[in-house]
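Milestone M4 deliverable, item 7.
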Amino acid sequence: MQSKLLENKTALITGGTRGIGYAIAGTFLREGARVAILGTSADKAIAAAMKLAQEASVSIDQVTGFGVDVKDTTAVANTIESVVALFGGKLDILVNNAGITRDNLVMRLDEQEWDAVIDTNLKGVFNCIRSAIRPMIRARSGRIINISSVVGLIGNPGQANYAAAKAGVLGLTKTIARELASRNILVNAIAPGFVDTDMTAVLDEEYRQKLTEQIPLKRIASPQEIAEVALFLAGPGASYLTGQCISVDGGMHM
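Output delivered:
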């Protein structure tokens, strides 16, 4: 019987209750990993974990959910400590996927909208990395996968806060990759284009069509297409890859 790619690995995925994070969690579970998903609500995270176990046909003991606000430094540290303890003191993979939008043109973008997106989408990534790398450093091994965005590479009108945060994630990825390379901790990013998630579901059909016309492949991605790239970065095939950003955008950023 062929061994699974993530057999005996443990993974923590933020924003794991829906969309891209949920797809990544399910993919990791099917490839043998034990998975903890973080969401803003403990009830929703636990419910999503139970659903994931059922869909992946694995034991409920293999996946668990935690509620935490990633911009809360102390709460993140305490939650990751609990996850590591649950996983027997080890953490092999961290996926930073949690994110929000508060779209507005710059001239109308208020300070609260700016701060909310920067704090969640950038500071939240920093908070999770800082706590998660401790067991990885002890083990001298680990993978960190940060979900950025094509918007962080090319910009997008009405999303100055989101683009700035996602561009910041790329700079953070490269810096942490350099800092942790000597400990065999590989740090990479994925920059999805437009993906069929709750975030894009609220767009009206006319705007979705305009977006699709900008994509050389002429379609919006599925969350699973992003999850497959995350699986590659978490698996043995990416053992000599660090500090990189893989654009999964149908050709938008060439």
